[in-house]
Design goal:
This protein is of the alpha+beta class. It is built from three helices and six strands; from the N terminus they run ββααββαββ.
């Protein structure tokens, strides 16, 4: 399920806690970030951080239980993207939640390292009655003055940029 709040540039998305649905998140964020003019590098980074966070929820909070739910909220401002990931599983021990050493080369164990390296802030709220709320924010490399929920009145993607034509405020080229 995906909903958008037209007044706050706020999206909500709920997915089952099954690894096969992580591709839905990748597709959702790729499409959203591309339409907002994020660079392909920023897009790749944010997708990696969200993917790692949700994979950690499935593995650690739900202990592999694929019958649970993960709720995501995306909040957009001209300068910032915020992603909130809510689970209803086992709360993490924040003191013990440390990535392993990068010198310890082996699969796994770097999700929190990637999340903290990519995003500008990563916070966990474990004060909820059930589960955890993870909030990650990323400042945009260039401000965007349009709103996702409208026809994007002022797009700052420069003319000639590959994504310029994707901005809804740009009139179609009459030459076809």
């Amino acid at each position: 399920m995906c909903d958008m709040d037209a007044t706050a540039d706020r999206f909500t998305l709920s997915i089952p806690s099954h690894p096969r649905y992580l591709c839905v998140l990748r597709g959702f964020f790729a499409s959203l970030l591309t339409s907002l003019g994020f660079s392909s590098y920023e897009e790749m980074q944010v997708i990696l951080a969200v993917h790692e966070a949700c994979a950690n929820v499935i593995k650690h909070c739900y202990q592999g239980d694929t019958g649970q739910r993960i709720d995501l909220t995306v909040l957009l401002t001209p300068d910032t993207l915020a992603v909130e990931i809510r689970d209803y599983g086992i709360k993490p021990d924040l003191a013990a939640m440390q990535p392993r050493s990068l010198q310890d080369v082996r699969p796994g164990g770097l999700g929190t390292h990637f999340m903290r390296s990519i995003m500008d802030s990563v916070t966990y709220d474990v004060s909820l009655d059930t589960g955890t709320l993870l909030r990650m924010t990323k400042r945009r490399s260039r401000a965007c003055r349009h709103r996702v929920s409208t026809a994007w009145d002022h797009c700052r993607v420069p003319p000639g940029h590959a994504r310029y034509e994707q901005c809804p405020s740009v009139p179609p080229d009459p030459r076809g």
